Amino acid sequence: MAQVAADISDLASIIQWLDARGRLVRVRSEVDPAHQLAGIAAKFERGPRAVLFEKVKGSAFPVFTGLYWSRELLGELLDRPVLSLPAYVSECIRDWQTRPMPPVLVRNGPVREVTEDTVDLSILPVPTHAELDGGPYFDAGVVITKDPETGIRNTSIQRFQVVGRDRLAINIDAGRHLELCLAKAAARSQVLPFTLNIGVGPGLHFAAATPAEAAPFGTDELGIASRFHGRPLELVGSSLTTVEMVADAMFALECEIMPGELHDEGPFAEVTGYYATVAPRPLVRVRRIHHRRHPVFQTIISGGEVFNSVGLLGEANVLALLQKQVPGVKDVYFSHGGCGFYHAVVQIAQKRAGWARQALMAAFAAFPPLKMVTVVDDDVDIRNAADVEWAMATRLDPRRGILVIDNVFGHGLNPTFPDYLGSKVGFDATRPFPHTPNFTRARVKPATLDGLDIAVPDIR
Ligand SMILES: Cc1cc2nc3c(=O)[nH]c(=O)nc-3n(C[C@H](O)[C@H](O)[C@H](O)COP(=O)(O)O)c2cc1C
Ligand SMILES: [Mn+2]
Description:
The chain is an alpha+beta fold. It contains 11 helices and 23 strands.
């Protein structure tokens, strides 16, 4: 009964695979999508299992969450050792950069099995997560649009608040390619059509979350999904616009943004652990809802899940760039205390004085949301906060090892970056170079317990 591997381009196959492996919690009782669903999901957050809510009050459709909240689960699903995930992800992106594998248009796909006669978002089990969230949110859908000038596709993930039967309000962070597409549409007094594809696998999710530094504007980042899948991603056309939808998605909404029309959006509990504030943001009209015959709605709880999507993608990109630019860089980790993308810990085997500082500067340049970068030697476990603290406590010289950069662009959701402007800090916690014996880390000689007669009693 156990499948060898899941088809990661298809969420139904992934859910089946999780189930067969004992990695799916099934919530059979009916749950309220307003707060109760998130409250239950939080009990399983970061654990080794994802969660399927089979009955959601007010909707015929189940809800799935938790695909990204454990790297261990993700590693198993992608059939890769956990520690190699950033390198694997950056490899797929590099493959795509050198040999793009464009998506293909197919005549039909599961997502077109049902097209609703009318648009009524209330039929969907859209959850309200945090206590003060302004309403139900789509937060795991993949947005596909096209540059109004060139017709080249762009893909991203944005959150959408439900503000009416057929209306959403969207949050587009500064600098996103979607912001650029919208500005171009506005300049031509056109609406910006897009599709919102919900219920997809990690290949497409990662393609959408690939940072602009790795997928510049004007490249069709859907090809990254093809690289993960090992074959071209399949799209189906829409009847209303020129923007395609993902053939294998659970749901696809055909939408448009009306330039200049705004609606209050927020508050929304962000991955930062703070609420995004209410402000007028672009209004979206939903023109058509398609879905599979038996679709599952996907949602993401702000927190661990985002650390392993945006965070993992950022990590992969910083690792790839640092390894290209700074000799000796061995590994990169975006800490969870740093919300998954504000604090990078870089491991380096320095061969020359000053390379740790080169790594600091290169990391900031490679991923603009970073606020802190800590560089440590290769005898420090970058995934262990206590070990990193040990390096800071014993190797960082506060006078020479702290680099503060003022007035620099950062992440607007970070409360220390109002209007996306703030200060960043780098910590060089590496030993002075050349290395001297007083900084050599003491170690016990590794031993084996194999073949030894040792009694370990239970604690009474
Ligand atoms: C779960 C999740 C939620 C996200 N929410 C938003 C959002 O609300 N607004 C936004 O601008 N970016 C959001 N992002 C980040 C963008 O999707 C990501 O930076 C993407 O690379 C942007 O695409 P672009 O490079 O084509 O602009 C989210 C990412 C994830 C994984
Ligand atoms: Mn893009």
